[in-house]
Design a protein that fits this description.
The protein is 75% helix and 3% strand. The protein is mainly α. The chain has one domain. Helix 5 packs across helix 10. The protein is globular, with a radius of gyration of 21 Å.
Length: 378
């Protein structure tokens, strides 16, 4: 089994490298300037329209791939905690229990791997990444906001992993994906941004969707405890969404500061390193880790696979914003809850009740329209 995982991991890394190289080469050809001067105005107009059309198609494909990779890593994260029948054929997963110390340990390993991977490709994505990190302490405001963002991501991912260990992957991600709505609410108080009627209507739709996902039988191995009528796993997902909503506020402070605004690449690298450091420090005061020695190879290879999926999704999403803009990118990316539910159904044989599927659909549509309108207004 370990040899098979190692083999498929190598194949995956080679495939991803080839994919990124081809996308980069294709993007260069799409936007490259003609070597010869063409005097025909109609021909030039036709070529410009052709290039724009090619860039749009490429951008949509790239963002869809990003959403697919994120949905896949959500399913992989659930496999860590819940034994499953992959494609209904063979047993896999359930390497660790959902104890807090185990969740933090998994988070520390994953974020450390993501930081190392991003360091390796940072010069290609943004040549001034390390210079920007050196300059970061010069602005206490931005530095403090960056630390705050890392803390929010640490709390959010800890809650999200716990949610994935207790309820269906599609339901957990649907609850988590309320964070754009939370960001809108927080922006109302932090930046004095007006709350529009359509935003209230969409947030009501999202809330109804979350309530619908709480119906139906529990997907937990044990009988799921509840609080105020909602399963604890759903509360964890909502808490993760709240933390990511706060993260959005801190990120806006870092990326749009008038004196020292950070590029997304050094900002992400600082966040990855900060989360890994916080998780490592938390392990010193958490309860002992309960992982069998035979499970470590599976944990390490699966964590590397999950970290690679997340990092590739991040890179592809940035490519997509370049080609089709932030509005259409946000609209496509909002399909993550539905894609996660679909992937969990295909790979883990994890089905949702009709009302839960309707709830995931409402959350997806509400977040998509809310994100699209927000980007359009900006």
């Amino acid at each position: 089994m370990i040899a098979r995982i190692r083999k498929y991991s190598v194949y995956f890394c080679i495939s991803i490298y080839t994919l990124l190289r081809n996308i980069y080469a294709l993007s260069a050809s799409v936007w490259s300037k003609p070597d010869t001067l063409i005097r025909s105005t109609s021909l030039i107009s036709y070529m410009i329209q052709s290039k724009k059309s090619s860039a749009t198609v490429l951008g949509i494909v790239v963002v869809l791939l990003s959403a697919v990779f994120l949905a896949a890593q959500n399913v992989v994260s659930r496999v860590f905690f819940v034994p499953s029948q992959l494609f209904g054929q063979f047993a896999f997963g359930g390497f660790i229990s959902s104890e807090l110390s185990n969740v933090i340990m998994l988070l520390a390993i994953r974020m450390a791997l993501m930081a190392v991977l991003l360091m390796a490709i940072a010069p290609w994505l943004h040549p001034d990444t390390f210079l920007a990190l050196k300059r970061l302490p010069r602005s206490p405001r931005v530095f403090g906001a960056a630390i705050g963002s890392a803390f929010c991501i640490f709390c959010g991912l800890t809650l999200l992993y716990t949610a994935l260990s207790q309820i269906a992957a599609g339901v957990a991600i649907a609850a988590f994906f309320i964070y754009p709505a939370i960001t809108v609410l927080l922006a109302r108080f932090c930046f004095n941004q007006k709350l529009r009627p359509y935003q209230l209507a969409l947030m009501t739709i999202i809330f109804i969707g979350v309530v619908l996902t709480n119906t139906g039988p529990s997907e937990s191995i044990e009988i799921a405890p509840t609080f105020l009528g909602l399963r604890l796993g759903l509360w964890y997902g909502l808490g993760a969404g709240l933390c990511f909503g706060l993260y959005g506020i801190f990120a806006e402070l870092c990326l749009k500061d008038q004196h020292l605004s950070l590029h997304p690449v050094p900002f992400s690298l600082f966040t990855f390193m900060g989360v890994s450091g916080l998780a490592t420090l938390s392990l010193a005061i958490a309860s002992p880790i309960t992982v069998s020695s035979s499970a470590w190879p599976f944990i390490l290879w699966t964590t590397l696979f999950s970290a690679s999926l997340t990092l590739v999704a991040y890179i592809l999403n940035n490519f997509g914003i370049r080609y089709i803009g932030a509005a259409l990118t946000a609209l496509i990316s909002a399909s993550s809850p539905a894609l996660t539910a679909l992937f969990a159904w295909i790979t883990l044989q994890e089905s949702l009740q009709p009302q839960q599927s309707a709830g995931v659909f409402l959350v997806t549509i509400g977040i998509a329209v809310l994100s699209l309108k927000a980007k359009a207004e900006k």
